[in-house]
Amino acid sequence: MEMNTILLIVGGVVLGVVIGYIVAKTLEKNNASKVVANAKQEAEGIIKQATAEGESIKKDKILQAKEKFIELKSEHEKVILSRDKKMADAEKRTRDKESQVSNELSKHKKTNQAIEAKMKDYDFRLEFLEKKKVELEKAHKSQIKQLEVISGLSAEDAKAQLVESLKNEAKTDAMAYVQDRIEEAKLTAQQEAKKIIINTIQRIGTEEAIDNCVSVFNIESDDVKGRIIGREGRNIRAIEAATGVEIIVDDTPEAIILSCFDSVRREVARLSLHRLVTDGRIHPARIEEVVKKTQKQIDQEIIEVGKRTVIDLGIHGLHPELIKLVGRMKYRSSYGQNLLQHSREVAKLCGVMAAELGLNPKLAKRAGLLHDIGKVPDSEADVETPHAILGMQWAEKYGEKPEVCNAIGAHHDEIEMTTLLAPVIQVCDAISGARPGARRQVLDSYIQRLKDLEDVAFGFSGVNKAYAIQAGRELRVIVESEKVSDDQAAKLSFEISQKIQTDMTYPGQVKVTVIRETRAVNIAK
Length: 525
Prior knowledge:
With 525 residues, this protein is mostly helical. It has 14 helices and 8 strands. A 3-stranded antiparallel sheet has the order 1-3-2, with helices on one face. Strands 6-7-8 form a 3-stranded mixed sheet, covered by helices on one side. Strand 6 and strand 7 form a beta hairpin. The chain is flat and about 185 Å long. The protein starts with a helix and ends in a 9-residue tail after the last strand.
């Protein structure tokens, strides 16, 4: 009984499971059908939408393609139109050129025809002239024969007599004309020369050009004098030994006197003192260093002065060595007259006078500036040569024109004048030097005596430097310690004094001081 119940229950469960499975399959099949149907509907909708979108995109692309085509077509048409226009312009220019060429050809053709006609006319005229010439020659010969028969002279004899009579007549007329011109020149030459010289002098403003032998060095207080003198006078002795200038320190307030006949030395001493006082360090070693630097500065200043001078006078193309000589003239004097001022004055006078006479004023200025360069010799050997000849030699050496060289060499009549420029330079030199107060003869002879005094010392071996100071009353000689011993220094002082006594004429006494300084120099590295 229980067994049957269990079987029934199991059977019912199995049956229920089978029925549930069948029902589930049925429901699942129905659901799948619905899903498939829905999917088909969605797919149809998507296809329709895609088709619609495709049609829209197709239409847009077609429109874009049409617009692009239209745009390209318009551009192509523009290019074609532009090309057609260019071709039309080229064709027009070609037609114009052709018409122009044809016109030119027609003109040339007419010109050639006219030239040919003229050539034919000229040929005809030449033939006619040749015939006339032959006829004239025949007639001339027949006339000459008739004249020879009438006069009884041949044609050559008649010609000779005519020439001789004309020659005598021409000589007489020429002599009379020359005599008249000579008399007129004698009457007017002196007057014209005075007029030219007066006009030249009036147009030139002269300056005072007198050089002195002393310079005044101004100081702020008298305390500086003690520092310049130094302990036991060592600083002032060092300055005098290095520069060759006599330093006079007296009771004059706030001033020190620098005395020397050589203006270059005096200027070196003045600038060196200015540097030393400004710097405040004044001792022998510093003094020598400053003097050397100042000498280099003066050399550079000489070149600058020469350049400024030639620029002021409008002179171009001057050799650098001649410019340096011009600058050196600033520190030289001639009979107390500053040489550079004198040369500038002569150059200006020459330029004006040359313009009055119709000569080249630039060349005259050049010769006037360079006429006294021989007064600034480079070496003692050049001193023996006259300054005019020496200046001419330098001008020739540095490529100056022959007119300038002759004017320089002949301005003191040491060579013959070969150009009109030479007497102009000579006259202007005389005008500049002859005006009142321009020169002092005594000063120049005094300076020459001091130079001769120094030259006596340089004539002995071992002498390094020699300075004439105290207006020529003392000769200070600095010797090389390697070549001259202490005993030889005393002997050298005696020999120099004897040489001065026998060879020179001088007032009073001359004190000869020989200085021998020994130095030992080493460098610590």
